[in-house]
Structure to design on (119 residues):
């Protein structure tokens, strides 16, 4: 809708291929070399705190965060940043590795699996 476009929220499908009840480890999605101009554009977006909000089967992904004061306290956020700015320098780093977990329960009423969590 128009509000999502004005806010910068655009839905698009990812290139990840996921299969129920199949563990995958260290799967390379793509290899890309960026130009200096593309790198500068990513740096600007990291400085502007651009984030990613993932959905799987209409279920939002949750990013697990831990409290610095008490690491036993766990919080969840619905989005994650595309990168991070270094507090020690003026460098920005694009996150290029992702790890996610999909929790599921088998269903007895239909064949398949019901997704119950996505982190």
């Amino acid at each position: 809708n128009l509000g999502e476009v004005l806010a910068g929220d655009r839905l698009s499908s990812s290139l990840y291929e996921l299969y129920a009840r199949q563990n995958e480890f260290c799967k390379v999605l793509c290899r890309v070399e960026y130009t200096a101009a593309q790198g500068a554009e990513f740096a600007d977006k990291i400085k502007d705190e651009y984030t990613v909000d993932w959905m799987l089967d209409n279920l939002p992904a949750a990013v697990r965060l831990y409290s610095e004061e008490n690491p036993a306290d766990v919080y969840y956020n619905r989005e994650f940043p595309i990168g991070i700015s270094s507090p020690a320098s003026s460098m920005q780093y694009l996150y290029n590795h992702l790890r996610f977990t999909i929790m599921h329960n088998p269903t007895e009423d239909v064949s398949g699996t019901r997704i119950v969590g996505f982190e």
